[in-house]
Amino acid sequence: MDLFDGHLEYDGYVIETGPRPRQVKFTVVVQYTRNSTDGRYDAGRGQKIGVITAYCHNQPGDKCPAWAKM
Fold first, then answer.
1. Total-model pTM
2. Is 70 exposed, middle or buried (0-12, 13-18, 19+ CB in 10 A)?
3. Contacts 24+ apart (CB under 8 A), 15-20
4. How far apart are CA 25 and CA 64, in angstroms?
5. SS3 sequence, the chain?
6. Cα separation of 33 and 47, whole Å?
7. Distances (CA, A) of 2 to 9, 61, 64
8. For the chain, what is the radius of gyration of the CA atoms?
9. I need a surface site. Which of 1, 32, 42, 52 has the fewest CB within 10 A?
10. How confident is the model at residue 5 (pLDDT cuts 50, 70, 90)?
């Protein structure tokens, strides 16, 4: 886990076992700040905005396959 500029990043693996085992590496990015990165949104004094995004590596468009979302 790395914390920088109001962002946390987590890396991990999704593993499906069975007759055809599969594995995908993923990164989850958490934005936890008062202001959005582009400056369009401000949660207000003492408040935070939280956005969670996940990316699967080595997949088309870095999108996680359906089996990894279950």
1. 0.65
2. exposed
3. 16/67, 16/68
4. 9
5. CEEECCEEEEEEEEEECCCCCEEEEEEEEEEEECECCCCCCECCCCCCEEEEEEEECCCHHHCCCHHHHC
6. 8
7. 5, 24, 22
8. 16
9. 1
10. low
